[in-house]
Amino acid sequence: MAESVTEIPINIEESVREAVQNVTEKPPTSIEGVAIAYLSLVIMAILPIFFGSFRSVKYLKEQKESGERPETMSNKDALMFPLIASCALFALYIFFQFFSKEYINLLLTGYFFFLGVLALSHLLSPVISLIVPASVPNMPYHILFTRGDNDSRSDIVNYKFTSYDVICLVISLCMGAWYLLKKHWIANNLFGIAFAINGVELLHLNNVVTGVILLCGLFLYDIFWVFGTNVMVTVAKSFEAPIKLVFPQDLLVNGLNASNFAMLGLGDIVVPGIFIALLLRFDKSLKRGSEFYFRATFSAYILGLLATILVMHMFKHAQPALLYLVPACLGTPLTLALLRGDINALFNYEDQPAIVESPADSSKTKKSE
């Protein structure tokens, strides 16, 4: 009897300690809060792909009109990209194991601060042009710094901008200062969305074959580093930079100061996004007045993202999103193109067709040499 009496306080003390530990380690959430967090991540993921894809069409058109040939990813680059990404990921993991993550994150924060300000300024430029009243003049400026004179003169700085660009820069700097001081999740998401939209707009896959190689390589990369090791999850949790979108699951409980986040890496947005943007440019090249392949693959991406969230919630374990997104984004357009008889046109499409010199041109080049 005495033994049972003495055990009661011990059990009560242990249960209280466990309850306090659970509260301190993991803030309380609700089903509604979790649903809002995942739904917000889906919306924040699809918006950069949608807007970035249409901006990529405009960007390609502007470059063709100016006569520029942008650098595009080759098949070799796509094949090497997962290996380079693996080396970079593992290097970060080693750094976090042996060095203080505060100093590493301080260095990375400064680096991504400048990149984020530039990306956000580029994103805000057309918006500011619409918002600012016509009474405010948009004055052009030109910074030119050269070296040498006459024929030997070369440009060191040759930058043109307008007063609206200055407004965009000031707003972006204010957002960047907010992020540096508070590291608030809203500021993080603003920079993350800007990175994603600019990535989908400016990073171009020249053809479908390159896209297939890139997606398949990153498909294996994502599976290995998430399921095979704890490297991906460790780096994602330790890395304090706007390379991921986050949304608090305890928002309804703790408000804007919530701290229990669901997250989605920007790679799971940008990599499928540049392939979906390529399909939109392919749709435009068909001149059928529709965006069939873009809309179908865009819808498949949403379903793949929802499948990722569902499996992650069921098994309570981090999931490689590309495990579900790559089959959805590759299988959908290839199957539809096969059924509609567009498979040859799909694989033959190129944003920038290779320039092939004729025998006459090559002989002229040899003579001139």
TrEMBL record:
Q: Where in or outside the cell is it found? A: Endoplasmic reticulum membrane
Please give the Gene Ontology molecular function terms for this protein: aspartic endopeptidase activity, intramembrane cleaving
**Record-linked InterPro entries:** Peptidase_A22B_SPP, Preselin/SPP
Pfam families cross-referenced by the UniProt entry: Peptidase_A22B
Give the main location: endoplasmic reticulum
Q: Name one GO cellular component term.
A: lumenal side of endoplasmic reticulum membrane
GO terms for biological process, alphabetical: membrane protein proteolysis; signal peptide processing
What sections of the protein cross the membrane?
35-57, 78-99, 111-136, 157-180, 186-205, 212-236, 256-280, 292-315, 321-339
Keyword terms, alphabetized? Endoplasmic reticulum, Hydrolase, Membrane, Transmembrane, Transmembrane helix
Membrane topology (UniProt): Multi-pass membrane protein
Q: Which PANTHER family match?
A: MINOR HISTOCOMPATIBILITY ANTIGEN H13 (PTHR12174:SF23), SIGNAL PEPTIDE PEPTIDASE (PTHR12174)
Question: What family does this belong to?
Answer: Belongs to the peptidase A22B family.
Q: What is this protein's record name?
A: Minor histocompatibility antigen H13
- Species of origin: Euphydryas editha (Edith's checkerspot)
Q: What is the lineage of its organism?
A: Eukaryota, Metazoa, Ecdysozoa, Arthropoda, Hexapoda
